[in-house]
Amino acid sequence: MIPVILLRPAIAPFTKLNSPVNRTSTMPFRTAVSIPVTEPSQVGEARRTAVAAAQNLGFSEEATARVGIVATEVGGNLLKHARGGQVVVSPLDLTDEVGLEILALDQGRGIENIARALTDGYSTAGTSGTGLGACRRLASHFELHSSAGTGTAVLAQFWERPPPRMPWAPEVEIGGLSLPHPGEECCGDRWTARLDAGRTLVLVADGLGHGRYAAEAAEGVIQVFKTHSRMRPGAILEAAHAAIRGTRGAAAAIAEIDHDAGQVRYAGIGNISGAIIVGDQRMNLVSHNGILGHQCRKVHEFVQPWPANAILVMHSDGLSTQWRLQDYAGLAARHPGLMAGVLYRDFARGRDDVTVVALREA
User: Do 143 and 82 fall within a single domain?
Assistant: First the structure.
């Protein structure tokens, strides 16, 4: 049997959404959380949220402390330098290893001297950390993107143990986030991915509406994907259509990248957007009208080339389609999690659940 990598937000199945994740803390942590930072108490809230998330994911005391320091530092930077922004805390799940991601996003004036800001021990924010350089040292993976007029995005990932590298698989980097409708605890969007030998599948599902019943429909699509991921995208969506009858229904799209053949096979039903980005060129991927579980004619698949240096972006309709990756100098060379965070920061509609996923070959 060929081993697989399954990457998804580390959330409990929908049937357990009302039960706390009780590993080392009684505070439930099931999906990504965004904390606005506009006044000092919210820096503490960001730290407490990140620490609780690390504890619920089973992090050691020492690893949890690192998470808390970084959350405090990036939150303090938002308050002092950007005059507001948000800290997004997301769980990660890769094979048997779980991790945590912190994104700090602002639309401030940007960092004038990135090299100096990343010098270990340098800080002008007056926070309890020792600067972005220390954040880079404390995190398992750290990146930032900053430009005048658009702001700064900081990505810090933490793993108790490094995820395994598979020698048979292409070097694929993937990142994304799902955040609920403002005021909701349950996110009606889901995303997940699977990496086989030479083949990567990415799914984005959006339950109709938002809240508990939207989450139930989207989770049903995720479960079908996990069970049928050896099949082609169209066949998986047809199976999901049958499986989630009786739910509110969902929009969903699947991209299958054949790394050896250099092509993408794509199928989508409903308002999920997908695009292949190569330099300044953008090729939009086609989804058909319909609702899985309710109205869905035969699912059509489309095949497009997957050139070298291509980037895949998929998102729900909680994100405007007006984004242009090339408007952000250097962002295409950053980790896909940072790309997803920047697009969310600048193009989230703010009136629905939102999911953004980006992928590229490293």
Answer: yes
Q: Does residue 264 surpass a pLDDT of 50?
A: yes
pTM score, two decimals?
0.87
Over the stretch 211-256, which tens digit does the pLDDT of each residue have?
999 999 999 999 999 999 999 999 999 999 999 999 999 999 999 9
Q: Determine, yes or no, domain membership for 1.
A: no
Amino acid at 243: A
Would 165 be classed as within a structural domain?
no
The residue among 100, 126, 159 that closes a domain is 159
Q: Which domain holds residue 154?
A: 8-159
| Domain closes at, from 159, 186, 203 | 159
How buried is 115 (Cβ within 10 angstroms: 0-12 exposed, 13-18 middle, 19+ buried)?
exposed
